[in-house]
Specification:
Elements lengths: L26 H22 L5 H21 L3 H5 L5 H16 L15 E3 L2 E3 L1 H19 L1 H4 L17 H13 L4 H20 L3 H17 L4 H24 L8 H11 L7 H16 L24 H34 L3 H25 L17 H20 L8
Antiparallel strand pairs: 1-2
Amino acid sequence: MTERNRRKGYFDRDSFLYIFKPGHIDLSFVITVAVILTFGLIMMFSASVASGTKLFKTQVIYAFVGLVLMFAASQVDLVKIEKDVHGLLTAVIYLGCMFLMVMAFFLPGDVQAGFHRILKIGPIRFQPSEFMKIALILMLAKILTYFQGELLHKEPIHFRRFDTPARTPVGSAFRAVVNFVFQQDLRVMILLLAVIFLPALIVQRSNHNSGAIILGLIGVCMMYSGNVKLRYFGYVFTVIAVAIAALIVIHQSAPDLFAKIDSKQRIDAWLSKDYTSTDDNRWQVNNGLYAIGSGGFFGVGFNKSVQKYYYVPEPQNDMIFAILCEEFGFFGAALVLFAFGMYLCLCANIGRKAKSKFQKFLVYGVAAHIGLQVVMNVAVVTEVIPLTGVELPFFSSGGSALLANLVESGLVLAVSKSNPQPRAAR
């Protein structure tokens, strides 16, 4: 049988199903991820020692599994995913994660009533919203790439067929409405908002407001990098501002309507600045601040934190940065933030050199996710913003979040394979 007549197998290199592609990856990015992950595991051990070593051992297992998944993701041929007809693969991943989040409402997972974040299937428990962030990044990268022509289109609308005069107030308003409705990129904007809003709504209904906020902010950052016109951001932010103003007015006139809302209680506790309060929301923030203050410049030493012993609730989760500041001081916290800064800078460099728009948007989406969570977590611990359940990437306890962070890092490495390599690596 000749080579031309030979039937293509499922795992031939030219087949779409053969999605793995060997190549050189960015070694500096690998070292940065390894340093952050190692220090994260060290802090995880120290922060969880008050409740035993079970959480730390579980985190180590997830770390090893995540490294395997990161290596597998780094070998994916993103060119084949980018050229997938009509984005079928990205749509399947996106809709699959949406389905898993919906199933969390019907299958038992969380131990707290009213929470639907965890999905339990047999012995496996995971948080679908963490993987939804990867799916959203892939979906937005595909949409932004596919509609770049319409997003960059700047041809003005012609009004010769309209009889309404342009110099009257009615005519000017009419032209403004028509100019908005008939823009070629308006349907793209509606599609982008729908893709972002639907999973964010499901996450919010699962009593995970911070997760919904992060999904929305990832979408905003990717739309900005994807050449969405700035006027649309003005429209969206105007609607948000009006909605916030309306909520404030309603709260002033009928505060009882918001009395049982957990987010409202956290905001009230944040605004009170009562550092002697024993309220649950103030207790966590206050003791986190005590931990930061007691650390000084160089800290009290590894595994010598006092606040982690029943003062800071679950210090291995959202408040792990406070324990880091207490044990390693300002110097150690600055080094960790510098490492995250290196992570983001390397992402920006890899994205800048990417050979396609899809790969560029993918890397920028990963950088937006990691950067947003780091900023929000540090802001919560230092009381810059109200208390929210935002994990510190690679540090906070949680297998789903750690796996998602490492898979995202693997996708960035997959992009780096297509970039020009130094001579020593060729």
